[in-house]
Amino acid sequence: MSDEQVKLDALVVGGGPAGLAAALTMARQGMEVGVLERGDSCGSKNVSGLLYTTVLSDLLPDYLDSAPLERPVSRRTLAFLDGEAHWSATFGAEAWSAAPCNHTHVVHRPQFDRWFAEQTEEAGASILDSMVVEGLVYEGDGPGKRAVGVQVRDDEPLYADAIVLADGANCLVTESAISELGLAKGKKPQTWALGVKQIVALPREKIEDRFNLDPHEGCALDFFGSPFEGLVGGGFLYTGRETVGVGFAAKAESFAARKLKPREVLDAFCRHPVVRKYLQGGELIEYSCHMIPESGYLAIPELIGNGVLIAGDAAGLVNMSLYHEGSNHAMASGRAAGQTAAKAHAAGDFSKAALQPYVSQLQDTFVMKDMAKYQEIPEIMDALPELFSLYPRKLCSLLIDFFTVSQQPKADTQKAAIRKFFAGLPKLQGAHNLWKARKLV
Amino acid sequence: MSTNLFDLSLEDKLYRTRFETDHDFRHIEVEDSVCRTCAERTCLDICPAEVYKPDPNDARLVVARYENCLECGTCRVMCEPEGIRWRFPNGGMGVKYRYG
User: Is B69 part of a structural domain of the chain?
Assistant: First the structure.
């Protein structure tokens, strides 16, 4: 290595929650860390709705006072749509409006990530924005092959002892590193959901009136049923202070199989009477989309190689159950990767074997325990399209039929409603499916 | 341009998203030889920004309006292997979300 080469203790590819948590952790251990971010600031390529903050509260305990959080989620709704009918379950607790707000907040990720990057810089890491990593630089061959640096587009390579790969869902760098270093892929290939989202600006009072919120409250509504007919996924409404995020995510393959255009499905969702009333009069201020790795536990690749640790979405660490937990897993894995890299730094050994504690540490946390618990979700969602169409519709029409007011005797109304409910619902299969579906929770 | 939230065209929507267009770097390139053999043409429907359109000069091929790309990467993972060469736009270029 010549004198002109720039070498740091660690480089992090990607300035999202995983990469920043890793960089923050390593910088606090006195390591010289650089975060390579391809956007002109951290978060400028990122989209998401809810942020769970349990790991953040460990990393930056003052976050409630200083982070750009929109609203806490003090109330949640699971709603089922059927044509123009609907039913929903809403739940919440006063405690969720008071710190730490059930560790659930609506955020605008470009704003949140930029703040997180500032905290990471304050801890001593360097954020190198507008830098595109084309791939890693390697030395050696066979099992001894190791990553020694990153190839930056139109620039000299940068070198480091440890490289944390946190390049997100569309992880070109991680993919090439897995193949270059011969890391084991997951037992199943990764597949992705596609999320499409609109940010609608509305006056604060309108949001609070429409969603029935106090100024310090917020809510999250998740939708299933039509107009997601045949799509494996659902829609959402999240309240910001003066914005409403409306969108939906579904398996990319289920769009393709039905030749549905994501934008048109989102439009249909926004026009549904239930959704429309929340949004009308609002002004669209941004349209966005993002992929989500959704194959779960069985698609997680080997997370370490010589000189390399993989974290966050790039590692496929997304819980696709009703919890929709990704960013928190990203921070937990980034933190664990950073802790292991700091130990490796102290020991002067960055071999795959020396990085093994990252994997075992992660196995002991909620991240891998939850990933393992929900490992059957992708299969269940594929095998039971009824969950997203037939069942919600049946439940919806049962309630509508049950409560439709008429001069017919109630016994007849109820009998007819129940008969209609079971018509076209394969009985044994229905019970079996519901039993399987318990794993979604 | 419509201002009713529910009637916005894709162009209206993209207009409200901030971009830093790089006129010197096409970060998406379609491999015509793969494209010619593709019956699915998933790219035409799957892209939320409708970057892919049938090539007006050859209906078997598609053209990519890379300037509209929101960089999700779905086309890359859904296309036939080697069908789309998808690279990251240059640093600081491309989509710049303000809200995400």
Answer: yes
Interval B28-46 mean pLDDT: 96
Q: Per-residue DSSP letters for A121-187?
A: HHTTPEEE-S--EEEEEEES-GGG-EEEEEEETTS--EEEEEEEE---SS-HHHHHHHHHTTPPPPS
Give the model confidence (pLDDT) of A373-402 as tens digits. Answer: 999 988 888 787 777 778 888 889 999 999
ipTM of the complex: 0.97
**Residue among A233, A236, A270, A235 at smallest CA distance from A252:** A233
If one counts the domains in chain A, the total is 3
**What is the domain range of residue A323?**
6-68+108-188+298-364
pLDDT at A354 over 60: yes
Q: Give how many domains chain B has, as a whole number.
A: 1
Residue A264 sits in the same domain as residue A347: no
Q: How far is B78 from chain A (nearest CA, A)?
A: 8
For CA atoms A300, A376, A247, A113, the dihedral sign is: negative
A32 shares its domain with A50: yes
Report the residue from B45, B49, B95 with minimal CB separation from A45: B95
Assess if residue B64 is contained within a domain. Answer: yes
pLDDT at residue A229 is higher than 80: no
Res. A276 pLDDT band, cuts 50 70 90 = very high
Residue B77 has pLDDT above 80, yes or no: yes
The answer to whether position A426 is within a domain reads yes
Closest chain A C-alpha to B57 CA, distance in angstroms: 24
pLDDT tens per residue, range A83-139: 878 999 999 999 999 999 999 999 999 999 999 999 999 999 999 999 999 999 999
Burial (0-12, 13-18, 19+ Cβ within 10 Å), A423: exposed
Pick from B16, B45, B97: CB nearest A256: B45
Q: Count how many pairs of residues, chain A against chain B, have C-beta atoms within 8 Å.
A: 150
Task: Answer whether residue B83 is part of any domain.
Answer: yes
Return the CATH number at B53: 3.30.70.20
Could you list the residue range(s) of the whole structural domain that residue B88 is in? 25-95
